[in-house]
Design goal:
Distance between the termini: 40 Å
Order of helices and strands: EHEHEHEHEHHEHH
Largest sheet: 4 strands, parallel
Number of helices: 8
CATH superfamily: NAD(P)-binding Rossmann-like Domain
Strand content: 5-15%
Shape: globular
Oligomer: single chain
Radius of gyration: 18 Å
Helix content: 40-55%
Strand order of the largest sheet: 3-4-5-6
């Protein structure tokens, strides 16, 4: 569509492959290698990227870590790393964006959360906790910035064919009905343009989420979902 995009990720090879794939398209893809655990780097890096772009009107935070956690495993190191990536990284980057958008009184922030944040499940409890925290933070930010022309959209995907899903299958989970990353990206961009508040991708997960939220606790604790 002719826009300039900054793509930030930890894996240099994948970034370079993305930039090469988009080389013939209108607009630029600017690859930037960064580990979200290095939150101390964020302010200076963000300032440099905004200068290079000239302007910024859309920010998408899509980083997520779901470590493999066994049913009898209580690993604090894994849990804190998930918190640092999924919550700490989100806050570090989004705070910088929020400050800029509030000043310029326009802009859209999109956070990719998960339906896993709707309830506390037996499987991988801290991953779900990070997504619940992300949902809360983004809602608070949406309310905080509403009077400044800034919109904050929370995306709650179901199953998407990513490396994270591959890892979940290796843990023995049976997962059906996953959508492609391309289909998810189209839905996310549409939600951002329509200024949705909380958007489930695909839509059927809104119904699933409503059911899950309303299962009584005395029943939910005996369910493996």
């Amino acid at each position: 569509e002719g826009v300039d995009v900054v793509a930030i990720a930890r894996r240099k090879a994948e970034l370079e492959a993305l930039a090469a794939k988009c080389a013939g398209a209108p607009g630029r893809v600017i690859p930037v290698v960064h580990d979200v655990l290095r939150d101390d780097e964020v302010p200076a890096l963000f300032e440099r990227l905004v200068r290079e772009l000239g302007t910024l009107d859309l920010f998408i935070y899509a980083t997520g870590l779901m470590s493999e956690v066994g049913p009898s495993e209580f690993d604090t190191k894994k849990d804190l790393e998930m918190l640092a990536v999924n919550v700490g990284g989100c806050i570090a980057w989004t705070n910088e964006v929020a400050r800029l958008f509030r000043t310029q009184r326009t802009g859209t922030i999109v956070g990719i959360s998960s339906i896993a944040g709707e309830r506390g499940r037996k499987g991988n409890p801290v991953y779900g906790t990070t997504k619940a925290a992300m949902n809360h933070y983004l809602e608070a930010l949406r309310n905080r910035l509403a009077d400044y022309g800034v919109h904050v959209c929370t995306i709650k995907p179901g199953f998407v064919e990513t490396a994270m899903l591959v890892a979940a299958r290796k843990q023995g989970r049976t997962i059906k009905g996953a959508i492609s990353p391309e289909a998810a990206a189209r839905s996310i961009l549409k939600a951002a343009r329509r200024r949705g508040n909380e958007v489930f991708v695909p839509f059927k997960w809104r119904l699933v989420g409503a059911v899950i939220r309303n299962i009584p606790s005395f029943l939910f604790k005996g369910m493996n979902i």
